[in-house]
Write a structure and sequence with these properties.
Elements lengths: L1 H10 L1 E4 L2 E4 H4 L2 E2 L2 E2 L3 H6 L5 H4 L3 E6 L5 E3 L4 E2 L2 E2 L9 E6 L2 E2 L12 H19 L14 H31 L10 H24 L11 H21 L7 H30 L5 H37 L17 H8 L26 H14 L2 H23 L16 H12 L6 E6 L8 H15 L11 E2 H11 L7 H10 L14 E3 L6 E9 L6 H17 L4 E4 L3 H32 L3 H23 L7 H27 L4 H27 L8 H32 L23 H39 L1
Antiparallel strand pairs: 1-2, 3-4, 5-6, 5-9, 7-10, 8-9, 11-14, 11-15, 12-14, 13-14
Helix pairs in contact: 6-7, 6-8, 6-22, 7-8, 7-10, 8-9, 8-10, 8-22, 9-10, 9-19, 9-21, 9-24, 10-21, 12-22, 13-20, 15-18, 18-19, 19-20, 19-21, 20-21, 20-23, 21-22, 21-23, 22-23
Length: 805
């Protein structure tokens, strides 16, 4: 069967651009022949050959007199009386798996034809092995991992329309009320369109400037659509809190004045978090942060322009009493001009009542209260303000944070090769078998002496031998029996021919003209680099074999040991293995995570102090964000999510989502009047519903990730689910309780106070009328300055991305 696979590879002819290529045209050759599989050389289609011919492992004597290495080709090996033989030449009793390796040229001119050839072999092996009984054959090519990631990206593109449909149904449903005039289905659709515009604008601008699109950026639309709807819900909640007797223009100005600080604060902090992620050592993290961060900026721009304009049209429809679907006037809802002008400056009278009250509208103030908003005000808020409930909440919080900290101490690092392919795919099966049967003798680590040295001198030879010995004595490397050293073999050769007291000229001449010409030693030509005149060696290479790397900690320890030994070498040396591409993440991920989180939290503190007029609340926002991050890191350990570049992405997202939940409730608390208890209830009444709506919209956006076959998208689902749950808990439970006890006191002399649902509004007298006009005048000046600051921040953010690009 193995020979059948080999015959298929050898006989295949690939036609490309009018030229036919055979395997021999594409393979890496040595002495005019393709590199052979030693297993096939020995097997000869007879499974008993290994036993009858006493085939040894991991080294074996080949029929041509050379020695071959079977450690990379045989797996699950059982040996005969291993203690009675040399470790590197122990007879094989049985083997569970063997691996055929075919090496193709890596030149750019062969890239496309190699891809076609690999595709044929992968599919051919699958078809050929389908009829085999008791034997399974799995193929893996150099492009398999990339193909798997692309397949996962295509899968996400298929999931997005489904997620968008779910979000559309949810958003429209959450904007519906019993009153067809006050319902806003078209505005819900406008909210989704606004986020879609941001999703298209950010990639369009970045691709225009040549920023590459990495596959991980495919998750950006799912994140932005949930976050964008959160801002839309905040603006809708602000609109519902305005008096229906006000003009559309005045209701819109009040809505923006109420919502803009909250959504601006979250936009600034989210953008800063993604800016910080843009300096990560991981390319995938940097690119993802560029795309998502710029999408956040565009979403903000579209929210305060496109979506706000749609709110105006919806408000005009409501003012004219038109049906939300048919647009037919079903009642005369417009207040008279005199009363409209009277309330335009914020005045209310006890006698003024709106004749047609819609669902949830209070006759005392004309506000449109959604049933869910009144739930937070009349039921949920008073419950968590109960002193005994506060004690229970704080006990739950201490339990939460204790378990989270314990989980942080148990967190593991690592992104394995299996995490880069789809679950259940042929590639996953291959990598599972590789880790099960072929980890005893890999990876090979090369030690490169990168400068010219006097190799003929004993001192130089001793330095190299001591360096290799340090690696051989480490638990993560095999001993000298599996070390490949041209210098060691050359010294043995000189001893055999009885040459001593050798000079530089003799050392180099014998090396080039005799030693390297012997077939058994000829491969060492690849490990020695002579200068142009062949009078000195300017670089040389040695190989030490790793062993038993079954965990990320083993892989990390092996790589760090190799690099440490190279750094300690008296000569400039480099330790390298292709596997270090994966192992490097274990070294970089924790420092990168700590760096990004510290900078992100610092940016949150900075932005909070600029945008929230309360030092105490800024401190509690920061503490809440840190608490949520600790919870995400700690609890994701219990959900089998390790710390790696993919989870680092979600932690950066966690910063932004954490800020969303905490700043919304804190901003509403600061803007309210009355006692701490009343202000907390008012904050829950104002933003409790949009926080829940935003959380649910994000959950709908990422819900389908739970069923994805790719590890990266499942990590997104798990991590963001934790962020949402902990964010809601902090924003609606923990933080309100803390603010009710330790929040800033608020002395307020304005005639209007929020005192709960049954509060009556105090009428204005003439002096208060003049004061109210002055207050509005100063408020307009403040809003102008505030808009100027926000515009500057937005332009600075865009300028940052342009500079980075």
């Amino acid at each position: 069967m193995a020979s059948d696979v080999d015959q298929m590879v050898q006989d295949h002819i690939e036609a490309y651009k009018g030229v036919e290529y055979e395997y021999e045209d594409l393979c890496i050759m040595w002495h005019g022949t393709c590199l052979a599989n030693y297993v096939l050389t020995l097997y000869e289609d007879d499974p008993k050959y290994f036993v009858e011919n006493n085939t040894t492992y991991p080294y074996v004597s080949l029929p041509d007199g050379n020695v071959g290495f079977l450690g990379a080709e045989l797996g699950g090996v059982e040996l005969w009386n291993e203690d009675e033989f040399e470790p590197e030449f122990s007879p094989v009793k049985s083997a569970t798996a063997f691996r055929l390796l075919y090496y193709l040229k890596s030149d750019d001119e062969f890239a496309e034809i190699n891809a076609e050839f690999e595709t044929f072999v992968v599919h051919g092996v699958q078809e050929m092995s389908a009829g085999w009984e008791g034997i399974s054959a799995i193929s893996f090519a150099s492009r398999t991992a990339d193909d798997e990631v692309k397949a996962a990206t295509i899968e996400s593109c298929v999931l997005f329309p489904i997620a968008s449909t779910l979000l559309l149904v949810f958003t429209v449903g959450s904007c519906m009320m019993k009153d067809p005039v006050r319902s806003k289905p078209w505005l819900a659709i406008a909210a989704i369109v606004s986020t879609l515009l941001a999703m298209l604008s950010a990639p369009g601008l970045l691709c225009f400037f040549g920023v590459p699109f990495v596959d991980m950026a495919a998750a950006m639309p799912f994140i932005i659509i949930g976050r964008g709807l959160d801002d839309a819900f905040i603006m809708l909640a602000a609109w519902r809190q305005t008096d229906v007797n006000f003009s559309v223009e005045h209701r819109m100005s009040l809505s923006l004045a109420d919502a803009v600080m909250s959504i601006t604060a979250t936009t600034v902090t989210d953008t800063l978090a993604f800016m910080i992620g843009g300096i990560s050592d991981f390319l995938s993290v940097r690119t993802f942060c560029f795309y998502t961060g710029l999408a956040v900026v565009f979403d903000y721009i579209y929210q305060i322009t496109f979506f706000a304009a749609c709110m105006v049209f919806t408000g005009q429809r409501e003012a004219e009493g038109r049906h939300c679907f048919t647009m037919k006037r079903i009642r005369n809802s417009a207040p008279d001009v005199e009363k409209q002008e009277k309330v335009k400056v914020g005045l209310k009278t006890e006698k003024f009542e709106y004749s047609e009250q819609s669902e949830g509208t209070s006759k005392s103030d004309g506000k449109i209260d959604h049933a869910f908003m009144t739930f937070f005000r009349d039921v949920f808020g008073p419950i968590i303000m109960n002193p005994w409930i506060k004690v229970v909440v704080m006990l739950c919080y201490f339990g939460y944070i204790g378990v989270a900290i314990w989980g942080c101490l148990q967190v593991e690092q690592g992104l394995t090769e299996q995490n880069l392919v789809r679950e259940g795919s042929e590639a996953t099966k291959f990598l599972d078998l590789k880790y099960e049967y072929f980890k005893t003798y890999e990876p090979a680590v090369s030690l490169v002496i990168a400068t010219e040295q006097n190799y003929w001198e004993a001192d130089t030879q001793d330095v190299i031998n001591r360096t290799l010995t340090k690696l051989q004595e480490d638990e993560h490397f095999h001993d000298s029996s599996l070390t490949i050293s041209w210098l060691h073999e050359y010294k043995r050769f000189l001893e055999l021919v009885d040459i001593s007291d050798i000079t530089k000229e003799m050392f180099l001449d014998i090396l080039r003209e005799q030693f390297l010409q012997i077939p058994a030693f000829e491969p060492f030509k690849l490990d020695i680099v002579f200068d142009e005149t062949n009078t000195s060696i300017i670089s040389s290479r040695y190989f030490v074999m790793g062993k038993n790397l079954f965990s990320s900690e083993d892989e990390k320890a092996m790589m760090l040991k190799a690099r440490q030994v190279a750094d300690d070498c008296e000569f400039p040396a480099i330790a390298y293995s292709p596997a270090f591409v994966y192992f490097d993440q274990f070294v970089a991920v924790i420092p990168t995570t700590v760096q990004n989180m510290v900078l992100a939290i610092a940016s949150i503190i900075f932005a909070s102090f600029l945008l929230i007029p309360s030092v105490t609340c800024c401190i509690w926002v920061t503490i809440a964000v840190v608490s949520i991050l600790i919870g995400v890191v700690g609890y994701m350990t219990f959900w089998d999510v390790n710390l790696h570049s993919m989870s680092l992405l979600t932690l950066i997202l966690s910063v932004g989502f954490s800020v969303d939940y905490t700043i919304h409730i804190t901003s509403a608390f600061v803007s309210a009047r009355g006692t701490r208890r009343d202000r907390v209830i008012h904050a829950l009444y104002s933003v409790g519903m949009p926080i829940v709506q935003g959380s649910l919209s994000t959950m709908f956006a990422i819900f389908l990730f739970a069923f994805s076959s790719h590890y990266a998208f499942r990590v997104f689902f798990k991590s963001l689910t934790l962020v949402i749950l902990f964010g809601i808990a902090h924003g609606l439970v923990f933080l309100p309780v803390i603010l009710s006890v330790l929040g800033p006191s608020h002395a307020d002399n304005s005639p209007v106070e929020y005192m709960g649902p049954k509060t009556k509004v105090k009428p204005y007298d003439d002096d208060e009328l003049q004061m109210s006009c002055q207050v509005e005048f100063y408020l307009k000046i403040d809003i102008f300055l505030y808009d100027y600051i926000i515009a500057s921040c937005t332009m600075s953010t865009v300028l940052y991305f342009v500079i980075v690009l």
